# Entry
Amino acid sequence: MNALTSPDAFRVGTAADAPALSAGPPIIRFEAVGKSFPGRTGQDAVSALSGVDLDVPQGAILGVIGRSGAGKSTLIRLVNGLERATSGRILIDGEDVTSLTEAGWRARRRKTGMIFQHFNLLSSRTVFDNVALPLEIAGVGKAKIAAKVGRLLDLVGLADKSGRYPAELSGGQKQRVGIARALSTDPKVLLCDEATSALDPETTQSILALLKQVNRDLGLTILLITHEIPVIKEICDRVAVIEDGRIVEEGEVFDVFTRPKHATTARFVEAVTGVEVPAYLAGVIHAEPQPNDQAVIRITFTGENATAPVISRLTTTIGVDVNILAGRIDAIAGRPFGSLLVSVPAREPGLHAVLGALKSLELKAEVIGHVS
Amino acid sequence: MSPEIIRLIAQATADTLLMVAVAAGLGTLLGLPLGVFLATSKRGELFAAPALNAVLGTLVNATRSTPFIILVVAIIPFTRLIAGTSIGTNAAIVPLTVAATPFIARLIEGAIREVDQGLVEAARSMGATPVQIVRKVLVPEALPAIVLGLTLAVVSLLGFSAMVGAVGGGGLGDLGIRYGYQRFMPDVMAAVVAVLIVLVQTVQSLGDRLARRLNKRLRHA
# Structure
C-alpha cells in the first residue's frame, strides 16, 4: 500500500484547530461554469468542466479532489484567469471576472497567490530573488522588497537560505520558497495546484502545517486541488469531489467523509476511513450463522460517541466477550471518527442485546457475516 | 620566419578578431530579439503571431541554407549599400553579420524553448506582462544555454571569416591561402592554423567557463 494513504502520515491538527469560518459571502463563487477546449481540426471540442457550481467561503480551506483528467487543474486556473470559462459566471470578491480583459486579469493575479506541484522556482535566482519576483513584477521599490522578503523568509523558516539557489534546496524547502513567493503580494486567496504531490509524507505534513498556519494567521482563503485524500483530511474545512468535469459532491469534510453519497467519494474516503476485513478472515467469513459461530460486526464511530468506552461497556453491562479484529480511530477535520471490526458470540439473545446497546449509543453497527 | 611575416600574421589575427567580434556583436544584437520572437510567437504563445513567425522562420532557413561563400557574393549590392564598398575587411563584416544573425537567432530560440513552461505559467500567475516574462524569466533562465550557443556561433564565425578573403577581406584565412598555399610557404600555413586553433580553444573554454558560472542548476549544498 502506498505510504501516502497511511492515515497517520498527514496528522497536523487536533480538535483545537477546528475551523472558525466567517459566515460572509463566498470569496469565490462558480455559477454553472463550463470550460471546453477547441478540438483538433475536424474534431469536436473537448469539454473539461460543465455546470460547476461551487462556493469558496472567505477564510476557508476548500479542497477539490479528483483523479487526473477530472478537470481539477482547469478549475483552479479559472480562478486566476490562466484559463477562461466558456460558459457560466465566476465571481471573485463579488466582482464578475468572466469578462475581464488580459490586463484586468494581470491586476487581479497580483492579488492571488499560486503554488505548484513542481514548485516552478527560477533556477537562475536565489531564494531571496525568487520571493522578490512578484514584487518586482508589481513594481515595488527595492527597500520595500528587501523588508518584505525578509519577513516572508522568516515566516516559512528559510531566513538562513536567502542567498542559496533552488538547486541547493530540498523539495520541502523549495515549496516553502514557493509559499513565501505566493504570499509576497499579500493575496487574499492562495491557489494550491497539487502542492504536496511531489513530496514525501513527512515533508507533506510540514507543508500542510504551514498552509494551515497561514490560513489561520493571515486569514487567507485556500483553494487546493489534489488527488490525495489525506491532504483533504488533514487541512481542509470543505471538500468538493470532481469527476468527468462535474462536481459530484461537496460539503464539510467531516460530513462528506463520514457519510459519502457518491460512489466516487466513497472510494476516495475508503482509504482513510474504511476498515477492511483482515485477510485471514476474508476466506472463512460466511453469511448464515452455524452453531457456536461468532458474529462479525462493523461499528462506525462518529462525533462525540467516538470516544465513549464502548467495548468495555458491552463487556460489563451485557457480559459478552468482545473480540477486536481490526480497527481505526482517527480525527477528520479535527473531529474523532473511527471504525472497528469486532466479533461476539452469535447466540441470541446476547447478539440482540449487543446491537441494541450500540444503537442506544447512536453508533452505526452492522453484522457483516459469521465465522466459526 | 622573418619579422615581416610575423607582422603579417599579427595583422591578420587582428583583422580576424575585429571581423568576428563585430559580426558576433551585431549578430547577437539582431539575433537575440529575433530568436526570442521565434520562440514565443507560435499559436497560443506569449506574442502569438503565427504568420509572421512562419515568414521569419522561412527567411532564417533560407539564409542558413545558402553556403557562406555564395551568400558573400550574392549580397554584394547590399554590402556596398551598408559599408560603401564591397571590398576589404570592413565590407566583409556585412556578410558575416548576415550569416551570423539567423544562426544566432535559431540558437537563442532553441535555448528559450528549453525553459520549463511551468516557469512561464508561474510568472503569468503573478501578473507578469509578456515583456516581463521575457526579461525576468525566459532570458535569465536560458542564459547558460545562450552563452554556449554564442560560443558555438563565434567558433563558426572564425571559420566563415577565412572565406571572406574572396572579396578582399583580410584575416587569417586570407593569409593562409595567399602566402601559405599560393606562395608555397608551409611555415605560414602552419602558423595560421596554430593561431586559429589557439583562438578556437580560447573562445570555447571561456564560453564553457562563463556558461558554467551562470548555470545555477547544477550546484549542490
Summary: Chain A touches chain B at residues 80, 82, 105-110, 112, 114, 116, 118, 120, 122-125, 133-134, 136-138, 164-169, 185, 191 (CB under 8 Å).
